[in-house]
Amino acid sequence: MLQPLGALTVRACVDDDVPRLAEIFREAVAVIGPSDYSATQVQAWLARVPSADVLAGRLGDGRKVWVLSDARRCAFAFADLEADGHIDLLYASPAIAGTGAVARLLAHLEAAARAAGMECLHVEASAAARRFFLKQGFAVLHRRTFEIGGVEIFNFAMEKRL
Ligand SMILES: CC(C)(COP(=O)(O)OP(=O)(O)OC[C@H]1O[C@@H](n2cnc3c(N)ncnc32)[C@H](O)[C@@H]1OP(=O)(O)O)[C@@H](O)C(=O)NCCC(=O)NCCS
């Protein structure tokens, strides 16, 4: 697994980041997912990890996207913000997850949301992400259960009033 070089800083995502972001997405689900989800649930989640091309389309729809980037400009985490305050994607490489760096990425996102006049951030958070977002002042609205490829899985609707 790629390790960061030097300090991690927040910057806007560029097109060339996207293949690396797809890699982060897959590594995050494969390594962090098993803390809270069964092997069957993780397999179903992994089957939904987008290819770089599909992810490029999703991230290129006008939403804002930021990455945590090292001294080589290599990304180690990413987060997006849609126009209605929805955070669709937040993924961190296991190489830097748990170090506190992702909180700086979210602080940047939150500052941008406030600057844009947004009043609320909302997210459907995985179990690990629920613990992260609780530390960042989000509240759980309700637990959600749904199916991915016939496998039942759960996450949490959360929000933070700004
Ligand atoms: C959600 C995420 C970005 C949060 O960033 P983070 O730096 O891990 O945040 P935290 O340090 O608060 O850790 C949250 C939980 O992730 C797990 N975790 C963190 N680092 C980990 C690592 N390196 N390996 C395995 N699990 C790890 C722990 O269960 C932790 O809970 P705890 O603090 O109660 O022990 C990151 O955990 C991640 O990418 N997770 C997998 C993908 C995911 O669930 N994305 C959200 C989709 S809504």
Q: Explain this structure to me?
A:
By secondary structure, the protein is of the alpha+beta class. The chain has a domain at 9-118: Gcn5-related N-acetyltransferase (GNAT) (Aminopeptidase), CATH 3.40.630.30. The protein has 5 helices and 8 strands. The strands form 2 sheets. A 4-stranded antiparallel sheet has the order 1-2-3-5, sandwiched between helices. A 4-stranded mixed sheet has the order 4-6-8-7. A hairpin with a 5-residue loop joins strand 2 and strand 3. The longest helix has 15 residues, at 18-32. The chain is globular. The N and C termini lie far apart (36 Å). The protein binds coenzyme A. Coenzyme A binds next to helix 1, strand 5 and helix 5.
Explain the layout of strands and helices.
Blueprint: E1 9-12, H1 18-32, H2 39-47, H3 52-59, E2 64-69, E3 75-81, E4 86-87, E5 90-92, H4 101-115, E6 120-125, H5 127-135, E7 139-148, E8 151-161
Parallel strand pairs: 4-6
Antiparallel strand pairs: 1-2, 2-3, 3-5, 6-8, 7-8
Helix pairs in contact: 1-3
Bound molecules: coenzyme A.
CATH-defined superfamily of the domain at 9-118: Gcn5-related N-acetyltransferase (GNAT)
Q: What is the terminal-to-terminal distance?
A: 36 Å
Global geometry: globular
Do you know the CATH topology of the domain at 9-118?
A: Aminopeptidase
